[in-house]
Amino acid sequence: MLTRNLLRSSTGSFKSSAKFFKQLLQTRSYATGGGSNKTNHFIPLTLLGLAAIGLTIYNTNNNTKPPTASVDPTNSTIIANPLFPSKDYPDKINVVFVLGGPGSGKGTQCSKLVKNYKFVHLSAGDLLREEKNTPGSEFGELIDHYIKEGLIVPQEITIKLLKNAIVKEYNKGLRNFLIDGFPRKMDQAISFENSVSESKLVLYFECPEQIMLERLLNRGKTSGRSDDNLESIKKRFKTFVETSMPVVEYFDDQSKVVKISCNEPVDEVYDHVVEQFKEKKII
């Protein structure tokens, strides 16, 4: 049960996050047993994730104070028990993270893959907006604040929504998932892969910022989205560069990243995606 106040003072929140990563590190150390190399490799990742949380808390407390909601970031039982551990589900679930700056075309390309190859497209942003608009949602006000400020919604909320959506589709017999706009921070990447499933591939769309800006401003004329305005867009660009690009680099070091240029017509971009998916045996 998620029962604690999510956003406390800077010191209190950082201590909670430190406790959370300490538990995660202990769990990882126990799991690897005598394999000291794996544990030592994991320590810098843990510290990097902890630093990312601390930076987010600092920025939040030094800008605008968001609403509060009940979430326990120290809930280690979620992190320590993967829903689809690779040793038990090596071929039963394929997770592809789809990353790229705001307006890079992630949703458009995912829609084409869903239509032609029957992937399940889960947009972290859409799930958050749906939760925000759900009457009586415990997290609605908090999510609304983060979206408007161009900040990253706390991972406990996002991962919970994604996990619920994956289980729902898995129970229908579906196994291939495109997760759009996630993970956006190192702690999200680590937590998801330890609580839900390891990713098979990261699809990263590269796009010039000016093109993304023009796309988003045009979309904002009809989308009705609260974050499709110039002020929010600039904040989202900054957040992506500072917190999401390290995630891309992290997975790139594992040879999991496929980079696709978005500075081409939609159909040509899609052809490149399909070519890479076939080469990587995703489809």
From TrEMBL:
Residues 218-228 are annotated as: LID. GO terms for molecular function: ATP binding; nucleobase-containing compound kinase activity; phosphotransferase activity, phosphate group as acceptor. Residues 123-153 are annotated as: NMPbind. It is an enzyme of class 2 (transferase). Its EC number is 2.7.4.14. Its cofactor is Mg(2+). Binds 1 Mg(2+) ion per monomer. A ribonucleoside 5'-phosphate binds at R129, L151, I152, V153, G181, F182, P183, R184, Q188, R225, R236. Keywords: ATP-binding, Cytoplasm, Kinase, Nucleotide-binding, Nucleus, Pyrimidine biosynthesis, Transferase. One of its GO terms (biological process) is 'de novo' pyrimidine nucleobase biosynthetic process. The keyword Cytoplasm applies. Monomer. Belongs to the adenylate kinase family. UMP-CMP kinase subfamily. Catalyzes the phosphorylation of pyrimidine nucleoside monophosphates at the expense of ATP. Plays an important role in de novo pyrimidine nucleotide biosynthesis. Has preference for UMP and dUMP as phosphate acceptors, but can also use CMP, dCMP and AMP. This is Uridylate kinase. It comes from Pichia kluyveri. The gene is URA6.
